[in-house]
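ok trying again, last paste got cut off:
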Amino acid sequence: MGLGLALVLALFDFTVLWAPARAYPLPSEGHSVKFSAVVPPLQNAFGWQNLTCPACKVLFTALNYGLKKEPNVARVGSVAIKMCKMLNIAPLNVCQSAVHLFEDDVVDVWTRSVLSPSEACGLLLGSSCGHWDIFSSWNISLPSVPKPPPKPPSPPAPGAPVSRILFLTDLHWDHDYLEGTDPNCADPLCCRRGSGWPPNSQKGAGYWGEYSKCDLPLRTLESLLKGLGPAGPFEMVYWTGDIPAHDVWQQSRQDQLRALTTITDLVRKFLGPVPVYPAVGNHESTPVNGFPPPFIKGNQSSQWLYEAMAKAWEPWLPADALHTLRIGDPAGQLQWLVEELQAAETRGDKVHIIGHIPPGHCLKSWSWNYYKIIARYESTLAGQFFGHTHVDEFEIFYDEETLSRPLAVAFLGPSATTFINLNPGYRVYQIDGNYPGSSHVVLDHETYILNLTQANAPGGTASWKRLYRARETYGLPDAMPASWHNLVYRMRDDEQLFQTFWFLYHKGHPPAEPCGTPCRLATLCAQLSARADSPALCRHLMPNGSLPDARSSWSRPPLC
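nice, full thing came through this time. structure:
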């Protein structure tokens, strides 16, 4: 079809965790690199938002002392549970389950790690808590082939074919979802067996889902797929990961594989012969975010997951994609990406990139190198599609010389899950279709939601409806990068337009708290920031052109 969709790039969620092996030398065993995969779940994945910097340093100092005294998994696990309870990081049952799930990996990695407690907490909580500079700067190698002069795509002729692409992300099926249970339990995930029942004065979890820290029952995902007819027909599906629920403190490999096969079968049942291109999310593995690079062998490797994915997705993917899926490819991934893009440029193909974590949310060096690659191959890239944040947003790429010419945009599609306080949703992209000379760029997109208030009402049903069309709602002349750039600055100056965006950003269920000026500027800055830790991208948003402080309220809003 000329799109090079054998080149749909399943940019795994562990792009945030693993740096490419060919970009710089890894340590002989790579354990300090692997540590970065173990630490991030401790705060976000378990909802441990009260893990302060002092508490973090106390925790890792105790861990460090215990391991030096006696590298015993059970002993360290016991200490970690006591510290978790003492510091009120999470409920006791979550502390116990999480420690038991993570303890083997943590002990194995930490005993070989060169990170100090300060460095570990800097990695976990940010530079204000400590400085983590191991492999902080590296550069990808680009071919010596000169970059072609940028040439904006020509608008399609009237009547030219248009393709519709279904975009699914962050389904987060909760096998244990139970109607009527407490949606405000003490655990990081509620509305499920074990959540208990709500007080008599409060309502329980709804039949189709709930506005809280809850994931979805299978029936809601089935209703989504069953009700796709009015949004189609679809030429293909982009499915960017995160299949299991957020009960990450107690997941087994069997749980993850059950989620993979159940949801894959469901997608195949309702979409039939439509090609599906999946990417891997950070929640597919257990422990969460745990995607060891290829040199980790045996039971601690991810081979159990990759082999199962290859088997489940074999009807959809060509042999070369199944090969890269089986090896995981977290090491050398960006160099592989460069090679694929260069081959596509040489052939004259256009490319779509799909992935889970968007580039602006990745570790700085990875993010900046990815940004560099996008700038080099801007004439080959026709679209980028990510998920992970659960909300409806985008990230703009600029030329590296001036940071003023918008050259690409990554679309961040809304999640199917309600986590946290959202309506379920999905996205449909209109793409310049298949014909000689097609640009294959995004022409427009539509977002569909299930209004839970209506669906859970007495006599209500699961009725999925279109929430909005992008160009119509925002008054865009097209869906090219410059139009999204201009929209950000229009929203800066037009409060009503921004409030429309804020409503749609949350899939029709915004928080009760108003989004004032600091919130608005932080949100708009995130749309300009496809490169992590790059405040200069937002300088024109700020009063008097001042640079935002990454530690201030101007910084990127936290993820769900």
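cool. The longest helix spans residues 92-110. The chain has a mean pLDDT of 85.
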